[in-house]
Amino acid sequence: MEIDWMERGRRPSESGILSTVLRGNPDDEIVALEARLRDAQLSADVEVLDKLIHEDLLFTGPDGQLATKAQDLEAHSSGLVRFRSHEPKELRIRRVGGNVAVVALLAELVVEVAGSPSEGVYRYTRVWSRDNGRDWRVVAGHVSPVVLDTE
To answer: Is residue 121 part of a domain?
Structure first.
């Protein structure tokens, strides 16, 4: 069942831009994690990224190549990848039991890769997992460009 925040008369406690684009059931915990991840990407905060990404991450980039946590952290710390703008447009969250959540995020991005700017609309799919009820981490993900209907 989808819940409209206006009907409920309040927003989630970790509001920010992500809660305003949330579709479906509310999930303050995962919205807050996605907000922390977004902020860390925008500020290239490798310490926070290190805490949020699982050691055994499997991430497929827009070019179809797999990346590991170490590669992702290195790309941010070296400046190879710089998020210049990250504007979420839609966020959907599905829980799979108590320790797994799947996120679909649609966002307009401006990213510099090796000094070359790239911008567009992208769809992320991320899998968050909580080991033994402890901290949540991204264990898998994928990002693809979205082709918008121009008609």
So the answer is: yes
